[in-house]
Amino acid sequence: MKVDRPLNVVSFKSEAGNEPVREWLRGLPNEDRKIIGADILSVQYAWPVGKPLVDNLGQGLWEVRSRLNNRIARTVFAVVDEEIVLLHGFIKKQRKTRRDDLDLARKRKRLYLQNYEKENPSRH
């Protein structure tokens, strides 16, 4: 699925107008934000990308795997009509991704797609 570069990157927005991934990033130290941003930029320009930078989580979810100085960050996303939709971000504290994190990303993807289909009826 080669597409024109770069893919657009959008952040999931809740009904209240909050953008959880953007808010999560703003709460991180500047150096960590730069690393995560550079990793997302790499995905934006080189999609599809595999390990070690990106891993498939199943059900149309992917994660950007960012190595920070003393910890690991994950940014979960989906690709919808040639757009990268940032759904959830977190600092990984255990080897396996927590079910709560995956469930939250799935829920946000579902909500995003419902909204997207309402706003773009001719695309589906």
Descriptive report:
The chain has about 120 residues and is of the alpha+beta class. The chain is about 35% helix and about 30% strand. The chain is built from three helices and five strands; from the N terminus they run βααββββα. The chain has helices at about 20-25, 30-45, 100-120; strands spanning about 10, 55-60, 60-65, 70-80, 85-90. It has a five-stranded mixed beta sheet. Strand 2 (about 55-60) and strand 3 form a beta hairpin. The model has no long low-confidence stretch (mean pLDDT about 90).
Summary keywords:
124 residues; alpha+beta; 5-stranded mixed beta sheet
Number of helices: 3
Count all strands and give the number.
Answer: 5
Mean pLDDT: 92
Secondary-structure element pattern, one letter each: EHHEEEEH
Major beta sheet, strand line-up = 1-5-4-3-2
- Please describe the biggest sheet, giving its number of strands, its sense, and whether it closes into a barrel: 5 strands, mixed
Rg, Å, rounded? 14 Å
The low-confidence parts are: none
Shape category = globular
The chain-level structural class is: alpha+beta
Q: What is the terminal-to-terminal distance?
A: 18 Å
Proportion of residues in β-strands: 25-35%
Give the helix proportion (percent range): 25-40%
